Amino acid sequence: MPDHKLSSIQANIDNFEGLYSTTSILLEGHLHTHTIQTRLTPRLASLVPVTQIVLDRAFANELPAKKDSYIDIPAFHLVLRLVSAISARHFVGHPMCEDEEWLSTALKYTENAFRTIIFLRIFPDWAKPVVSLFIPYSWKVSSALRKAQRLIVPIIIQRRKEAATFLLTKDSSYRKPDDFLQWMMDEANERDGLPHKLAHRLLILTLASVHTTSMAATQTLFDLCAKPEYIAPLREEITKAVQKDDGFTKQTLTHLRKLDSFMRESQRLNPPSLLGFKRCVREPLTLSDGTFLPKNTHLMMPVYPIVTDAANVPNPMRFDGFRHYNNRLQPGESNRHQFATTSDQNLHFGHGKFSCPGRFFAANTIKMVISNLLLRYDFHLEGSATGSVERPENVRLHEYVFPNPETKVSFRLRQV
Ligand code: HEM
């Protein structure tokens, strides 16, 4: 159904307490989604070698492991730092991508926006304007937004100055930046292109992408720790692909079909939310079975029960890391069952016209992070040096599911 009848963005912003998390700016237009679809996704393959350079540096800084002993690191925190570094490189480019102030501002914004949402949701709408004045998380959201604008607005102004100078002088040393901020600047209309609005949208995009991707990558890492029998076949697949391409190149990730399947299985059983496909009714609707939905009704799908229903997935509670790989081997099925493929039975990224536009970027980021972990390190859950163990319990808040942020994983450099 079209957006003016049944809106995805309105539902998601309402669920995110748009006014208080400041995400309601997304209702002003589709610049961010349009830029992901027309600029980011078509370039994904060419981002792979750059992502590898970012990871070489990030691993040296974030995971100083040794060959002869293990170090224990909170896994979610580690993955968050790696994913933040990748996103920052592609979203804001040099030199801001290595600026600790930007990285920590984006993380603080996301964390406090989530806390604000979880807290405010329990109050009726009429009480929220007053309650929000008394919750520090909400003040921190506004302060992170102001700081992000202070950091990003001068870059936008400077880039526009340089572009204007180039038009006049045709100076051959000018290089147009090639990152998400620049693509949004190129695509924006007059209103969306105001520097403080571009900075605001960039920050929200970081919110939409970094935590979700980090949670999925951490869940994949926990499943690898709990099912170490998958480590050897996955390493074999990755090593072959990297050797064939002589490093991580544009094509390498498409060869990682077993890893893609393992990620999808991990997400199937540990999705970021038990409910999804959130929609808000904007015009009164009567469904084909006669159900009447008045204007402003919110509806959502039970996405976890759907993927754990035996009618849809055989033996649904069993973790089968190569389930989707094997499905893809069936005639005519090779392009389905991928991590980023949505269907009416796999709604973790939504489905249809308004499904998550960033899921292909997320898939590549997770593959790069997990492949590097598998190739560089031996690892297991802290205190479980041998044998298979239970994966750590997830943390649940309302319908949201988070990997336990306290869980530590022990890492050692591989003896290769
Ligand atoms: C594993 C990681 C991710 C998960 C699980 C996820 C999940 C979702 C879901 C469930 C939706 C709502 C879809 C619907 O309403 O039906 C969504 C929307 C969205 N996602 Fe993602 N996402 C992820 C990564 C990303 C990344 C990396 C980006 C940015 C590059 C991104 C950008 C967006 C945007 C902009 C929207 C809103 C689209 C709109 O305005 O209609 N997401 N995502």
TrEMBL record:
<dbReference type="InterPro" id="IPR002403">
    <property type="entry name" value="Cyt_P450_E_grp-IV"/>
</dbReference>
<protein>
    <recommendedName>
        <fullName>Cytochrome P450</fullName>
    </recommendedName>
</protein>
<keyword id="KW-0503">Monooxygenase</keyword>
<keyword id="KW-0408">Iron</keyword>
<comment type="similarity">
    <text>Belongs to the cytochrome P450 family.</text>
</comment>
<dbReference type="InterPro" id="IPR001128">
    <property type="entry name" value="Cyt_P450"/>
</dbReference>
<dbReference type="InterPro" id="IPR036396">
    <property type="entry name" value="Cyt_P450_sf"/>
</dbReference>
<dbReference type="Pfam" id="PF00067">
    <property type="entry name" value="p450"/>
</dbReference>
<keyword id="KW-0479">Metal-binding</keyword>
<keyword id="KW-0560">Oxidoreductase</keyword>
